[in-house]
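Appendix B, example 12.
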Amino acid sequence: MLKPSSNHKILAIAQTDKQKAFEMAFHEFWETLFRQAYRKVQSVDIAKDLTQEVFITLWDKLENLNEEDKLQAYLFAILRNKTLQLFEKDEVRLRYAMNHSHSDEKFAPSSHHLLLGKEVLSIISDEVARMPPRMKEIYTLKKDNYFSIKDIAEKLSLSEQTVKNQLHRASQRLRARLKDYDPSLMAIPVILLSPLFA
């Protein structure tokens, strides 16, 4: 596990020597991220590709991270998002994701649900686009940019409770939209929505 001092050191170095900071992060996290990816996809080659994509994203955004950011959590959030995108494109792995979700619900996906996988994500994307500007901004910071609730509150000068309320309303909107489209979709694990409150 990365020590807080190491986290601070890598991100501090990134401000002056991006290449060195990247190499440090790569050395520190490659194996951990690869193991997590492999656990999700059960394929060495695909797990390597996913891990590589995580570090490509890190390279693009490294100098924009603050020293206070939690690098390990950030990298795992990127991996989670990349894995979800993979599941969207591959019905077999979507089935695997559903069967291995941490959800308490016991759900055996039917072929009907699997075929709806891409449509579900399309519906979610469309509903996000329809959200009020502030709600959309908060949702995007949380889901796509991996901000914590505290970070969002500070960035937008809002209380943490206000951020939580907006995320809760966003979640309700998404669930209502899915329910209107097909009530059976409510049985699909939350992995398809990505956790808002993690």
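DSSP finds ten helices and no strands in the chain. Residues 38 and 45 are 9 Å apart (CA to CA).
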